Amino acid sequence: MILSMTGFGKSTTMMAGKKLTAEVKSLNSKQLDLSARLPQHYREIELDLRAKVAQAVTRGKVELTITCEADSAQNATSVNVAAMQHYKQQLEQAAQALGIDPPADWYATLLRLPDVLVAADSASTLVTDDELNALHATLEQALQHLNDFRQQEGNRLASFFEEKIAAIQQLLDQVPAYEAARVEKIRARIIDGLNKLEGVDYDNNRLEQELIYYIEKLDITEEKIRLQNHLTYFLDTLHGPCGQGKKLGFIAQEMGREINTMGSKANQAELQKVVVRMKDHLEQIKEQVFNVM
């Protein structure tokens, strides 16, 4: 069964006053394109997290987001008094040197300067073993949710492909009925054209030979057989192992080749209409096959 490359997974874990959240979002892409947004103190383990995601996802444009939040008590912002004193001293010296008045509202001025307001959890950069294990477990759960989402989307895509392949098959089954009438119309049109030429005599045997040669060039038997094989192969691949998106795309291209050749050889309005409807269903398949992993 196929998997979709589009999906989303999220998981949250509470441990030791911290809230760990892992989010994984994926879109279609020809290969794995992974980007990660992590807290600064998780940068040392970024490669391990990326490897875990790559093993589970294999292909697609993937965005990994990890957040670590302290609870409300630990997340309170503290004032860096030492930094305020340092800034105030420098501002006073600058005002004296420039001959200008110091700020009228010191608090408003100083609180806007960098590193004056410090989140309590910003100083906690040490990742313990318990936190690391919780982080990996959270990421694994998010990846599981992502793959569950991809499986659901894959099932929807599989139903869509089956519906479109059945529609093309139904149209292909209609071709023989138009084909027999097409040969007779071509023959009648050529003979009628010859009969309208005054003073022209022709050999009937030679005419039959030329008609056979001309009609053979318009024969679409091979195209029908190959298209039938491609339809069967597409369904077999669809219900095979995962990771067949590229192969399904290649099969769809081959189906398009046979349908196009049938259209160029059709030489009949009714048969060309059938070919156009085949192309319509095939284009819808091609649009969606890019979402298959």
Structural summary, described in words:
The protein is α+β, with helices and mostly antiparallel strands. Helices cover 61% and strands 14% of the residues. It has 8 helices and 6 strands, in the order βββαββααβααααα. The protein has helices at 46-57, 81-98, 106-111, 129-195, 204-217, 221-238, 245-266, 269-289; strands spanning 7-15, 18-27, 32-37, 60-70, 77-79, 117-119. The strands form 2 sheets. A 4-stranded mixed beta sheet has the order 1-2-4-3. A two-stranded antiparallel sheet has the order 5-6. β1 (7-15) and β2 form a beta hairpin.
H-E string: EEEHEEHHEHHHHH
| Strand segment count | 6
Tell me, briefly, the overall form: elongated
Instruction: Characterize the main sheet.
Output: 4 strands, mixed
Summed up, the domain count is 3
What is the count of DSSP helices, taking H or I runs of 4+ residues?
8
Q: Pairing-aware structural class of the strands and helices?
A: alpha+beta
| Overall helicity | 55-70%
Strand order of the largest sheet: 1-2-4-3
Mean pLDDT: 85
Low-confidence stretches: none
> Whole-Å distance between the termini?
11 Å
Query: Beta-sheet strand percentage?
Result: 5-15%
Task: Work out the radius of gyration.
Answer: 35 Å
